[in-house]
Amino acid sequence: MAWLFLKERGALRSGLRILHVAPESCLRDKLRSLPQVEYIAGDKHEPGYAYPPGTMDLDVTELPFPDGRFDLILCSHVLEHVPDDRTAMRELYRVLAPGGLGILMVPIALGNAVTEEDPGITDPQERLRRYGQFDHVRLYGRDYVDRLAHAGFIVTEDAMTERLSPEDVFRFGLLRSEVVHAVTK
Q1: Per residue in 93-147, pLDDT tens?
Q2: Residue 64 and residue 133: Cα distance in Å, rounded?
Q3: Which of 88, 96, 117, 151 could cysteine-pair with 60, CB 3.0–4.6 Å?
């Protein structure tokens, strides 16, 4: 969905400085093939997981980059794992260049007005029951946009699957309920 969004918006160009947090291999390969792109991939290295070569150990709440460093930031399905997501959002805002674009997607319970979180819940089975996955620390509600805006971002929600045919949604393996959360600075 992120790739389709970037293509539709004409955001893919040569010379981009890209930060890709928790890089998906299909996107990584496409982004790295862009001409004259500077591509940095990072993920929080945890035991038991494999990371592609060149993926730096990265704490999204303390990014080791100067202000305004990146033209494009991709961070998909990461923030629901980060205990201090608000600090992570501020850090992503800090390293995004003025006029830059970010795609910060998370799973959202659209039926919930407010994000459900309780730092006291540490049991993996209870997290699975409450948040949908054993390593999630929250389940975002519709207030996700407000959280991003509070970090400084201008937020655009794009339910792009509503513009696509059912055949394309199936062909690309998209979820009808997923919304692209694009941010700018």
Answers
A1: 999 999 999 999 999 998 999 999 999 999 999 999 999 999 999 999 999 999 9
A2: 29
A3: 88
